[in-house]
Amino acid sequence: MSFPGVSRFAALKATPIKVLLLYSLIILVLVIGGVMKFVDERRQEVVAKLNQEAAAIARSQALLLGDHLAQAEGILTQLELQLNVKRLLQDHADLSTRDLLRNYRNLFPYAIDLLLLDRAGRVMATSNSMLSNLDIAEYCAPLGKQQKFIGSGGVFFYKPEPISQCPATVAIVYARPLKSNGETLWLLLSPDSFERVLNQNLSNLGAWANFHVVDAEQNSLQTFHGDKNQGLPAGHFVMHDSWIDPQSGIRYASVEMPVKGTDLKVHIDYSIDEVLDRYWWQDAKFAILLALIFLLAWGVFSWFVIRMVSRYQDSLEDSEQHFRTIANGGTALIWTSDTDKLCKYFNEPWLRFTGRTLEQEYGNGWAEGVHPDDLKRCLDIYVSHFDRREPFSMEYRLRHADGSYRWLRDDGTPRYDRHGVFLGFIGFCYDITEHKHAREELEQYRDRLEELVEQRTRELAIATEVAQTASIAKGSFLANMSHEIRTPLNAITGMVHLLRKSSLTPEQLDRLNKLETASHHLLDIINAVLDLSKIEAGKFSLEEVPLRVEAIIGNVISMLHERARSKDLKLVSEVHSIPRNLLGDETRLQQALLNFATNAIKFTTSGGVTLRTALVEEDEETALLRFEVIDTGMGIAPEVLPRLFSTFEQADNSMTRKFGGTGLGLAITRKIAMLMGGDAGAQSTLGAGSCFWFTARLRKGPSDSSAQSQVNKEAAEATLRRDFAGRRILLVEDEPINREITMELLGGVNMVVDDAEDGLEAVELATSNHYDLILMDVQMPKMDGLEASRRIRQLAGYTQVPILATTANAFAEDRSRCLAAGMNDFIAKPINPDDLFAMLLKCLAK
Questions:
Q1: So what's the pLDDT on residue 580?
Q2: Quick check: 626 pLDDT over 90?
Q3: Using CA atoms, how far apart are residues 172 and 162, in angstroms rounded to an integer?
Q4: For a Cys staple, 716 with which of 81, 360, 795, 837, CB 3.0–4.6 Å?
């Protein structure tokens, strides 16, 4: 097997020294060029930084000097000083003048002296008692033509005599003339005030840095030297941007800054070479570092050339060890064979599995461990696929080190070198014993599958029967509870109706109203529980009759009008573009709207309630309507809205004490809306009001259909009394109170009533008498109403006589049983008198 790059290695080996020298020369040239460029850039950066530092120091000193001169101007321009000096001059009080000048001089910490000169330049008064009556020419050695400042003012330099009370060698004068006879005030400033800043900054520019304050005529104030700020004599100064000292040959550079408001300038010069010499060691270190890098690169390159061949051999050994580790590190049993079909390699997992040595497995030694029943088949597959050089996969049993035989799956694949030359086969074997056992168990389980399915079917049938039994028990319980509650409730509501016809005091009438309200509330609760139970049981059926949405809205408005008026609330309705030919359950739509509207009035204290209906969408067969009830009440918190339509839930459970309610109305409304193909929901803002809505998809009827006419319930009683008086009615009721109340109601409309306590007695009365209508209770002793109705229908002349069921059971299946027994219609207890009269009129009118 060849190694990539061997030819390049041979060429390099022929002239290693020349190659090394060539590489060394190239690297050396690059290093020298790089160092020179780096040093040049480095020095330019240093010079630029020096210029910035010098400019900053000069700017700081110029600002400092400008501040001092501004303070001096502030002192000399004080009107009080000038007036006092004039007044003292007039009085010729020298001592008082000197004290006055001393006091003003002390106002400025850097002042040397404060002088008063006459027009001739002679000192008239001074803050220093030893300098009075001196000529200014004798007192100071002029550095310029300061005589022109006498009587005119300005800023200039002068050199006072070396007197002990005036230690400064050079000073700055700020002159200010008096507005009198030409006298001038001179305030002498000491340049020592610059020492604080110079001690901090000037030494950064080097030992040869100099500081000057220069006037417009090139006169220099005391010069400060960077070496310990040594003061040098003042004199005439010639400024240059840069120059070379002729004696030392050192290069200098300078910067200057003007002093604001004067013709003075601050000038700083420094030695460039001195500062650059500080960085020579850094440049040297960089050059040494580059040299070391060069030598290291040279050594690495030389070592690489010398070790290339040995590294090639090491790489081959590492590659072999790498693949050996991979082969031995897994769970697969690996083997390889050469072109002679004999195996030359087995990995360590194979040897651990068989418990044999590599020498024992070489060639065809591995076949000694194959189960005798599998050996021929195994060798045939191996040889045939080897000859065709095709992959194979076979299963056989191989003896384990513990003596047992275990199943292996052997996947063999032909192997080739990179030139496509066939080298033999490589195989990967996996222990599949557990898999084989699992497959056998799966086959056994499949055989038992039908038995298991039959067993599960029986269990499911039992569970279904249990569920149906529970459902029947639940329905029976609710039916019994309905009957047991509605029966006494029927007596209560009937008695209330009868009592209203008697003479009552206002107090008795009020109590009767409260009793009626309580009975209606109890009936609403019972109806809500039964409705919810019927919906959950899937026995809640909807009617589909022609209806008018406007009439439904009007009914709800009329029922709640008085309640809204008692709370001073506006109750209005809005109906927008509703199709006329709609079919649906008018009672359930009205119930849903009534639930929303009743809640809205209950929880609204001011404002009003609006009932709104609009068309959402329609097609040729259906129309989707949206009903909304909008109030201006207390609103509902956002976190409460998601659970508001759950059963037995209200916005605040504590509200049940104040407002009452079961928490079923909204849940029933949503379920009714969903049965009608819609949904229900609410939006609310706490403290601002709510909007409760539901949608219903109603089918369209014939275009000429109209809502069925409703019997005027209030006129039914009068019609019965006028047109059907004397008709014979058979009342079958086992409850004495209910029987008494119903007889009283029927007697009130001039009906002739016979009564029976059970079904058996009813059959006997019907056999001996003929009745125009029979009111039949369903649950009675001896014989129930269903059996009695069936027997009465078999009597002569009773095939068309109306039989009305009166029962407390209000489920749909109860109605179906009544109709199946031959009854004509159904009246649920407690019986509403108006509903009873309307039903009687309907049946007798036929």
A1: 81
A2: yes
A3: 16
A4: 837
End-to-end CA distance of the chain: 113
Please report, as a single letter, which amino acid is at residue 188. L
Nearest C-alpha neighbor of 170 from the set 184, 144, 189 = 189
- How far, in Å, CA of 20 to CA of 13, rounded? 11
What residues contact residue 753 under an 8 Å CB cut-off, 6+ apart? 728, 729, 730, 731, 743, 746, 747
822 and 816 in contact (C-beta within 8 Å)? no
- CA angle 792-796-798, nearest 5°? 50
Rounded CA-CA distance 703/712 in Å is: 26
Instruction: Determine whether 163 is exposed, middle or buried from the number of CB atoms within 10 Å of its CB (0-12, 13-18, 19+).
Output: exposed
Long-range contacts of residues 457-464, Cβ cutoff 8 Å, at least 24 apart: none
**Contact in structure between 311 and 329 (CB atoms under 8 Å):** no
Q: What is the pLDDT of residues 794-813, one digit of tens each?
A: 998 898 999 999 876 655 56
User: Which DSSP letter does residue 758 get?
Assistant: S
The answer to whether residues 54 and 287 touch, using CB atoms and an 8 Å cutoff, is no
Pairwise CA distance, residues 230 & 615, whole Å: 103
pTM: 0.35
**Residue that is written with structure tokens 């369209």 in the block:** 700
> How many residues can be counted in the chain?
846
CA dist 744 and 750 (Å) reads 10
pLDDT at position 589 is 85
What is the SS3 string spanning 270-321? EEHHHHHHHHHHHHHHHHHHHHHHHHHHHHHHHHHHHHHHHHHHHHHHHHHH
Give CA–CA dist 83/66, Å, rounded. 26
> Residue 413's CB: how many other CB atoms inside 10 A?
14
- For residue 94, pLDDT beyond 80: no
Q: Supply φ then ψ for residue 777, to 5 degrees.
A: -70, 155
pLDDT of residue 593 exceeding 80: yes
Tokens of 616: 């959402």
